[in-house]
Amino acid sequence: MNKRFIKTAMAVTIAAASFTSFVVSAETANVVASVQVKNTFDFTAGDPMNFGVIRVTNGGDAADFASVVLPPLAGSNPSYIATAGTTNTDAVISVLDSTDFAPATFTISGASNFTDIVIQTITDVTMTTQDAAPGGPGFTLSDFTYYVVDGTNDGDTGDIDGSASLVTTDIDGAATFSVGATLTTDKAVFTQYGDVAYTGDVAVTVEYQ
Question: Regarding predicted confidence, which is higher, 134 or 143?
Answer without folding.
Answer: 143
